[in-house]
């Protein structure tokens, strides 16, 4: 697209839109193990291609971190599908004081700049997208993590129906730890493995949950094969990837829970009412009970 290959990436854009060098380094917080762009020394990167995230505060934060990390004259290519933040990219770059060129291709808007923007505007965007304590939830959070500034209604409904659990368990897709805190309120819980694919969520969970029984993993839950023989799993499974509905994710989470539980172990799950999870749960569990249905959400208890 631009003629040059990028050695540094944030997110995974279509290869038709971004040419990445072999061994290009990934900085997205959604790729477990990737380095944090905020920790790249200022002026150290020779160029970066970013599939910009859809949320405004998160997107401006990520673009600002990239501008801070780029060497003078290095190229930033920021792109996004038109309806997932792409149509706002030009405004973002303008607000950050960048001179840029904009093109459109394959339903994406693509902006390329070689300036480092206005340092005051860049610093302000970094501050606006940074981690913070949310008084109304009593939790640390950051724009970009799931339901970042309010408790998700599905999770609130699960919390209201969850009994005091016992033994060793896991919170798959733990986010910033809202469900985990409820689980750990039971003194009979001996260990809780909290897994999320988002580095920021795990960092915030680390601030929110200071309990020696909790172990936090920045990982893809579907690949966490080490979870075996658990007494319980709790989850509010994701069903969006890159802003697009993907029911296979939820099915993968349910399969992972079934594989991680001992016989007789229990999975507590909350889901949007429209998701067809009952049909996924039934072949994998001995008993599936619909415990509650309210406000567009369903709560299931599935016994292995
Ligand atoms: C619906 S949210 C629930 C978050 C939290 N449990 C709550 O109740 O607020 C789903 C979470 O799953 C995480 N997630 C998405 N895909 C994942 C994957 N493959 N492995 C682990 N976590 C994932 C997301 O980052 C998000 O935090």
Task: Describe the overall structure.
- The protein is 25% helix and 35% strand.
- By secondary structure, it is of the alpha/beta class.
- It has 2 domains: 6-128, Vaccinia Virus protein VP39 (Rossmann fold), CATH 3.40.50.150; 145-303, 3-Layer(aba) Sandwich (Rossmann fold), CATH 3.40.50.150.
- The strands form 4 sheets. It has a 7-stranded mixed β-sheet with strand order 11-10-9-12-15-17-16.
- The longest helix has 14 residues, at 56-69.
- The chain is elongated.
- The relative contact order is 0.10.
- The mean pLDDT is 95.
- The structure holds S-adenosylmethionine.
Kindly state the number of beta strands. 17
Unreliably modeled segments: none
CATH topology description of the largest domain: Rossmann fold
Portion in beta strands: 25-35%
| Helix and strand run | EEEHEHEEHEEHEHEHEEEEHEHEE
Strands across the major sheet, in which order? 11-10-9-12-15-17-16
Question: Mind describing the biggest β-sheet?
Answer: 7 strands, mixed
- Write down the overall geometry: elongated
Superfamily (CATH H level) name of the largest domain: Vaccinia Virus protein VP39
Structural class: alpha/beta
End-to-end C-alpha gap: 51 Å
CATH class of the largest domain: Alpha Beta
**CATH structural architecture of the largest domain:** 3-Layer(aba) Sandwich
Query: How big is the Rg?
Result: 21 Å
Count the helices. How many? 8
Small molecules bound in the structure, each named once: S-adenosylmethionine
């Amino acid at each position: 697209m631009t003629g040059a290959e990028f050695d540094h990436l944030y997110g995974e854009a279509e290869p038709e839109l971004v040419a990445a060098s072999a061994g290009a380094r990934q900085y997205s917080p959604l790729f477990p193990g990737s380095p944090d762009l905020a920790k790249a020394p200022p002026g150290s990167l020779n160029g970066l291609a970013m599939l910009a995230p859809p949320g405004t505060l998160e997107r401006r934060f990520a673009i600002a971190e990239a501008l801070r990390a780029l060497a003078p004259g290095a190229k930033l290519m920021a792109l996004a599908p038109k309806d997932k933040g792409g149509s706002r990219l030009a405004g973002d770059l303008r607000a950050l004081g960048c001179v840029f060129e904009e093109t459109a291709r394959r339903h994406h808007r693509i902006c390329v700049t070689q300036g480092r923007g206005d340092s005051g505007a860049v610093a302000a965007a970094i501050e606006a997208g940074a981690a913070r304590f949310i008084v109304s939830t009593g939790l640390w959070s950051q724009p970009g993590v799931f339901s970042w500034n309010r408790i998700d209604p599905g999770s609130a409904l699960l919390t209201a129906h969850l009994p005091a659990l016992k033994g060793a368990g896991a919170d798959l897709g733990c986010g910033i730890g809202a469900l985990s805190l409820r689980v750990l309120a039971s003194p009979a819980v001996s260990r809780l493995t909290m897994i999320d694919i988002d580095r920021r969520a795990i960092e915030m969970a680390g601030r929110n949950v200071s309990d020696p029984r909790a172990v936090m993993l920045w990982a893809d839950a579907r690949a966490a094969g080490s979870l075996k023989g658990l007494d319980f799993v709790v989850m509010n499974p994701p069903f969006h990837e890159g802003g697009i509905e993907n029911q296979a994710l939820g099915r993968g989470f349910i399969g992972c829970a079934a594989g991680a539980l001992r016989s007789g172990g229990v999975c507590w799950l909350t889901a949007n009412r429209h998701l067809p999870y009952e049909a996924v749960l039934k072949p994998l569990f001995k008993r599936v009970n619909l415990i509650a249905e309210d406000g567009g959400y369903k709560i299931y208890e599935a016994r292995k």
